[in-house]
Amino acid sequence: MIATREVLVVIGAGGVGQAIARRQGSGKAVLVADFSERRLQTAAERLIADGHRIAAHVVDVSSRESLAALAIRAAGLGRVTQVVHTTGLSANGGSPAETLRVDLLGVALMLEELGDAMAAGGAGVVVSSTPGSLSPPLTREQERILARTPADELLRLPFLGLEQVADCGTAHEIARRANQIHVQRASLPWGRRGARVNSISFGIASTSMSRWEPAAGSGAFPRARTDAFDAGRLGTSDDIAAAAAFLLGPDSTFITGIDLLVDGGAMAGVRSGHAGIRA
């Protein structure tokens, strides 16, 4: 093992995580992490077969201790220069409490624990989705409180209680908007380490999760977004990987704390009224 080897950490071993690992992993030690041991093993075997140097690590993103262990493992492999967080529940993938725990708290904790492991000149990306760019699910005051609340106290905020967040769709929108807010907040401590962090909000892409959602009856909005695509097609995991490559790479060194919308023009269709629904 070369002590100065660059390390890429990919949290989430699904199609998007694998696409990013393939695109960014050449010449690096790649640490792939996921909650599912089976999914993790499958991804690791595929990436190793493609010639990548892979280490696998089971992680629970809703646990600070689990993420701290991941950060230690990553630092032991070399200089942590790239971190990409792709894991999360779909809009139909869990209860409101589970969605907030994994998608909201998990990102906030990751930004803290992995941020502390970043090398100077490094960059991170949180892969999120377009519900965070819809009509704000929170008031401006609630967003300010969210930005200032320590990660370990987030789920105790009154407006995130189960009486206020009673359905998975609302929890999903709140979590995705919170991701944008927490990336903005994290860009300051990351910046003090000489590192950058941004997020990506993607629309309907042809991944295993997004293919399942319309069939599961997740509502009119995903179908309308598909019809409204200016690009005339669904997105792909490779589209998301390309956007991540830009935000991780040398052409974006003056960009940090932002959310990049990668949706083929779907949100433009919504906001212009072309999609027939209101943002």
How is this fold's topology laid out?
Elements: E1 6-11, H1 15-24, E2 29-34, H2 37-49, E3 53-58, H3 64-77, E4 79-85, H4 96-113, E5 118-129, H5 140-148, H6 168-192, E6 196-202, H7 208-215, H8 220-228, H9 237-248, E7 259-262, H10 266-272
Parallel strand pairs: 1-2, 1-4, 2-3, 4-5, 5-6, 6-7
Task: Using brief descriptors, characterize the structure shown.
45% helix, 10 helices, Rossmann fold, 7 strands, 17% strand, 279 residues, alpha/beta
Describe what is shown at a glance.
The protein is an alpha/beta fold and 279 residues long. The chain has 10 helices and 7 strands.
Give a verbal description of the structure:
This protein is of the alpha/beta class and 279 residues long. The protein has a single domain, classed as NAD(P)-binding Rossmann-like Domain (Rossmann fold, 3-Layer(aba) Sandwich). The protein contains 10 helices and 7 strands. α1 crosses α9, α3 packs parallel to α4 and α4 runs parallel beside α6. It is globular, with a radius of gyration of 18 Å. About 6% of the residues have low confidence.
Multimer state: single chain
Number of helices: 10
Order of helices and strands: EHEHEHEHEHHEHHHEH
Count of discrete domains: 1
What fraction strand? 15-25%
